[in-house]
Amino acid sequence: MQAKETLFADLVQGRAQQFQVPLYQRTYSWKDKQLAQLWSDILEQAELLESGASASTHFLGSVVLAPSPQNEATFPRWLVVDGQQRLTTLSLALAAIRDHLAQTDPDEAERIDEEYLINKRRNGNDHLRLLPTQADRPQYAAHIRGASKEQAGGGGVATAYAFFRRKLAGTADPADPQDISRIEQAITSRLTLVTVTAERGDNVHRIFESLNNTGLQLSQADLLRNYLFMRLPTRGEYVYETYWLPLQDSLSNDELEQLMWLQLVLDGDDRVRRQDLYAAQQHRFERGDAGEADIEEYIRELNRRGALFRLLLHPEEETHPALRSQLHRLNAWQAQVTYPALMLLLDRRACGQLTSTDAARAMSYIESFLVRRMICRVPTNNLNRIFQAVPGQLPADVPVADGLHQLLSAENRFWPDDAELRDKIRTAPFYQYGRGHQRKMVLQRLEESYEHPEPVDFTTAQLTIEHVMPQSPGSEWMRMLGEEVTDGETVEDLHARLQHTLGNLTLTAANSQLSNQPFERKQDLLDGSHLEMNRRIAATERWGAREIHARADELAARAITLWPAPLRGVGRAERNRDWYLAHQVLAALPHGTWTTYGDLAAFIGSGAQAVGNHLANTPGVANAHRVLTSEGKISDGFRWPPQEEASGDVHARLADDGVCFTANGAADPTQRLTADDLALLVSGDEDDRSGDEDASQNEETRAARFFRQLAMDDSSETVAAVRAVLTGWEKLGGWIAHGTGHVTTSAFLMLGEDSAPGRGMRPLTLYPGSGRGGTAEVGFQHLCSREPFTDQAVRRECLELLNRLDGVNIPEGKLSLRPTFRLSILENEHNRELLGHALAWFRDQWAGRSTP
Length: 852
Prior knowledge:
- There is one protein chain.
- A hairpin with a 7-residue loop joins strand 13 and strand 14 (775-778).
- The strands form four sheets. A six-stranded mixed beta sheet has the order 1-6-3-4-2-5, sandwiched between helices.
- 50% of the residues lie in helices and 8% in strands.
- It has 37 helices and 15 strands.
């Protein structure tokens, strides 16, 4: 290879020649951001020309060229291995200058055309000095030839051309006719390129691959496309136009990459990772010494399967009603992990090996597998492996749908049976597992099972999940629950155990009216609901543990009918999985924290006594000694497991673990992790407390709703203090986003440009009280993955600043959680000043995150 520094004019001027962008290259993709930066660089060079300064030229980047297979001695043709975005953009800029001058100075316009853009005495594609990839060619040719009728709007080429025409119109100075000339000169003679020219016989794909793996970071789909068309020297044009372009038009680049990966999986590679797609497919072709016919067949098959893949992305395109419904539900569940199995089913149907009805039945097994596992809190970390293995493991001696049922029922697939499903619907905290939209879908399907003659249109109804017994119950609720407390359990423990179970949850559009009302008031509102499940709740005289369990049993019976069970005869170990979840969360207890038997029981959906018995008889459970009574005391029945009897004094171990004690010997209550805190230890970052999105609500309305809900539970002094804090935050350069929930809305203190509450940086989230006074939530869990707060020492400094406020005492053990403090403490002016100082510190840390 030869490398040298050159200018655009030196590269493209001179005798007739052509720079061909190979078919395997991605389409033209520069956006306004790149165009604006280039325009700024051009104007800077034009100003230097005007001033006569001898400053250096601007380095634009590299261009890698290789001799084209179509090269001729009298008409050199070069493949643009790298740099097509730069060459295309500069050519379009010159075309815009040419057209800008066409009316006032046609001679100059003609000169630009002939020197840089066209080969005057050549016809057809050879007329263009730069020949883009096939997808961009019609638009580019229309702009270079000036064929205005063919210059359709949209697309990157048209956008770039219009950008330069717009900029030139705004730059042209009637008093200075040379300004456009200087811009042309800046483009052609002040932007430096380094051209790397390969010799015939050099492996240009290796050059391209090396450059883009270290610089432009092309996707796996880009790299594989490049490889494929480099191996189609004679059939490339036909294959590209016949199979590739329709495929590329129907799928995004990311979707195309996913299809390529699925093709590998369907063809038997059940271990390939998507990020290794290119290397794996390349290895398969080279191992089999594939020729052009093999490559063409691969692309033809990819095109065929692309139509099937679109059904997963756009279920409305499926014509069979039952199959369309199944595809819609799996799409709404966001079940991308199941795509290998779904593609297999659609592929078998397309080949005549499976009817649409049986394909729908097979998909119902997949839906049941996902839903039952979610309800029963089975970890999702092995779903990729399970579904990627389906094409290679599907039994060959039974019908496809039956084979899939059999395969998913295998012991190591953990598909919960009917007994486990009943138990978990009764006891597991459904509201704390899975994703919000999945929980809502489960309740929607249960409501649909009542087959109401006038069903709700769920696509338009603004429904959210409602806790019938509130999360923050008032005294009337607690009195009623107190009637059902059994020995060894407090009323708070009973509430924590029941509140998030499926039997206590429903869907409603009247959350703001229901809120924390007594059950008698909720009955009136639910009785007028269009949902059958709500009318059934309203028909109940009271709402306590007995009623919640009875409704759970009713819903379990419906769930068993809706979602088919695995095949019988498979040994299961449900309890082991439950205890695994308990072991997992105990191992994750941060230093300086403790929890109770009731909290741990509520988290896993068990009972406090069962938790105590398990911990006492199971050796090797990390931090088992940090599970205490609800008073923060060591249980009278606590004992080390037999193998750990020499573990020493429990108080001493707790102190070593950072647990502090009050004067009466109880563990510090501020260090206690509730069932909700435990759920955070093994959950993701995002919080569902704000409710479902309501696109009809604008920010002003949400802000008004936030303060209205805050005023319902807090004093006017607290509301005024919160307003002052939010105003102060905006003065620091932050902004406020409001949650969309009707029951519990929120105010996010945000930094950054993203205008959605779940994105950007947020040090604090403020919540109305819901019966117990408003709270400020410190987003340590959110910050753990965001610089510079990934450093625990930085978060600790934030904690120390907040703990200076009178009434705030956050233990260090919550540096990875979401601790709270009462908004009422902000009535104290000194506390507001200290909080303002902490927020200014936070802003400064964020602003300096990239500073060495």
